[in-house]
From TrEMBL:
The record marks 142, 189 as: Important for catalysis. InterPro entries: IsoCit/isopropylmalate_DH_CS, IsoPropMal-DH-like_dom, Isopropylmalate_DH. Its main location: cytoplasm. It is found in: Cytoplasm. This is 3-isopropylmalate dehydrogenase. Binds 1 Mg(2+) or Mn(2+) ion per subunit.
Length: 366
C-alpha cells in the first residue's frame, strides 16, 4: 500500500513524541511491505514565529492533499499567561479542524492491565473498562458567537448546535457501537440547556435507526460522577464539544496518564491522529515525555484511515509487550514497583519498534 502521511509535530513535547510515532510507522511500512511517504508541516507557536500565522496556508494545503496526518500538540507559555494575545497557537488547531471538516473526535479509553496499579482509581473498579468517546469537534461554545458588552465588564460565549451537526456524529457513534458492546450513552445537560434539548431529540431520532443498540441519555454532571464510580458501565459515549473536552480528560485518569491516550479526529475526508495531551512546557526538552500516546495514535491511523487492522494490532501488542517487560516512562512508573525500568522518550520508542519487529518476525531493521 502506498500512502502519503503529513507529520505535524507542533510545539513542546509534540516534536519529541511525534518523532517516535513516525518511527513506528516507518517500522510498520518496512515490515509489512508498505510505502509511506512522509512530509512535514508547521502549526502553533512555531508557525506564528516563522510566518505570523498559527496555521500557514502551505501547511493546510499539504494536509488537504495527503492520506492521513500525525499531529503532536500546540502551545507555549507565552500565550498561556497572556489572555489578551490576538494571535494564539490554539487558533491553528480550531482552524485546522474546521477547514478539514474534522467533526468527530474519537478517544478510546482502555487501560493496559500492566498499568492497573499506576492509576489513581482502584484496580477492581478499573479492570475491564473499555470506553470509546465520540466528542463533537466543530460546534458548541467553541464556535458560537462570543463577545463583550457593558464596556467589557460582561462576556458571553454561545452554545450552539444544528440538527445536522448532531446527526452526523450520532450516526458515527451508533455505527461504532454495533462493532463493540452495542450501547451508546449520550451526554448532555437537557434539563437546563436548549442546545442540549435539541441534542437529545436528534440522538433519539437517530437511535430509532439502530434497534440493536441500547441508548441511554445522561446529564453531564451524572456522567462525570459515573465515569469514576463505574467506568465499566460505559461502551460508546457521544457528547458535545465542551462536555467532551472535560469528560475525556477526566477519563484519561482511567488510562493512568495523559501520556497513554491517543485520539483520532475524523470527518468525511482526511483523518488526523494525535495524543490527547498538550505541549507540556514543564517537561519539554528533558527527553522524558511518554511517547506511547503518539505511538498509539499511529496505530489508530493505520486502522481507521488505512484499514490496516493487522498492522495496527501489531503496534498495540508491541506497546503491551513493552509494558509487560517492565519498561516505563516516569509518568507511568509506580514508585512501589522496584523492577520497573525507567526510560526516556527516544529509547522507549525504540523498544516499542523492536518489539513490533519481533512480534511480526520482521527481518528488516530501520
Ligand atoms: P499538558 O497536557 O501539556 O500537560 C499536563 C500535565 O501532564 C503536565 O504535567 C505534563 O508534564 C504531563 N504530560 C502531558 N503529556 C505527557 C507525556 N506525554 N508524558 C509525560 N507527561 C505528560 O497540558 P497543560 O499543561 O494544561 O498545557 C500545556 C500547553 O499545551 C498549553 O499551552 C496548552 O494550551 C497546550 N495544549 C495543547 C493541546 C493540543 O495541542 N491538542 C491540548 C491541551 C493543551
Amino acid at each position: 500500500m502506498k500512502k502519503k502521511i503529513v507529520i505535524l509535530p507542533g510545539d513542546g513535547i509534540g516534536k519529541e513524541v511525534t518523532a517516535c510515532g513516525k518511527k513506528v510507522l516507518e517500522q510498520v511500512a518496512e515490515c509489512f511491505g508498505h510505502q509511506f511517504v512522509f512530509d512535514y508541516a508547521t502549526i502553533g507557536h512555531e508557525a506564528i514565529e516563522a510566518t505570523g500565522s498559527p496555521l500557514p496556508d502551505t501547511s493546510l494545503e499539504k494536509m488537504k492533499n495527503c492520506d492521513a496526518i500525525l499531529f503532536g500538540a500546540v502551545g507555549h507559555p507565552k500565550y498561556d499567561n497572556d489572555p489578551s494575545a490576538k494571535v494564539r497557537p490554539e487558533q491553528g488547531l480550531l482552524k485546522m479542524r474546521k477547514e478539514l471538516g474534522l467533526y468527530a473526535n474519537l478517544r478510546p479509553i482502555k487501560l493496559f492491565d500492566e498499568l492497573l496499579e499506576a492509576s489513581s482509581i482502584k484496580p477492581e473498579i478499573l479492570k475491564g473498562a473499555d470506553i470509546l468517546f465520540f466528542r463533537e469537534l466543530t460546534g458548541d461554545v467553541y464556535f458560537g458567537e462570543r463577545g463583550r458588552k457593558d464596556e467589557g465588564k460582561t462576556a458571553y460565549d454561545t452554545m450552539i448546535y444544528s440538527r445536522y451537526e448532531v446527526e452526523r456524529i450520532a450516526h458515527k457513534a451508533f455505527k461504532a457501537a454495533l462493532t463493540r458492546g452495542k450501547k451508546v450513552t449520550s451526554v448532555d445537560k437537557a434539563n437546563v440547556l436548549e442546545s442540549s434539548r435539541l441534542w437529545r431529540e436528534v440522538v433519539q431520532d437517530v437511535a430509532r435507526q439502530y434497534p440493536d443498540v441500547e441508548v441511554e441519555h445522561m446529564f453531564v454532571d451524572a456522567a462525570a460522577m459515573k465515569l469514576i464510580q463505574n467506568p465499566r458501565g460505559f461502551d460508546v459515549v457521544v457528547t458535545g464539544n465542551l462536555f467532551g473536552d472535560i469528560l475525556t480528560d477526566e477519563a484519561s485518569q482511567i488510562a493512568g496518564s495523559m501520556g497513554m491516550l491517543a485520539s483520532a479526529s475524523i470527518g468525511d475526508t482526511v483523518g488526523l491522529y494525535e495524543p490527547i495531551h498538550g505541549s507540556a512546557h514543564d517537561i519539554t526538552g528533558k527527553g522524558i515525555a511518554n511517547p506511547l500516546a503518539s505511538i498509539l495514535s499511529a496505530a489508530l491511523l493505520l486502522d481507521i484511515s488505512f484499514g490496516l487492522k493487522e498492522e495496527s494490532e501489531a503496534v498495540i501488542k508491541a506497546v503491551e509487550k513493552t509494558l509487560r517487560e517492565g519498561y516505563r516512562t516516569r509518568d507511568i512508573a509506580d514508585a512501589n514497583t522496584a523492577h520497573e525500568k525507567i526510560l526516556g522518550t527516544e529509547v522507549m520508542g525504540n523498544v516499542v519498534c523492536n518489539n513490533a519487529r519481533m512480534l511480526v518476525n520482521c527481518q528488516v531493521a530501520v
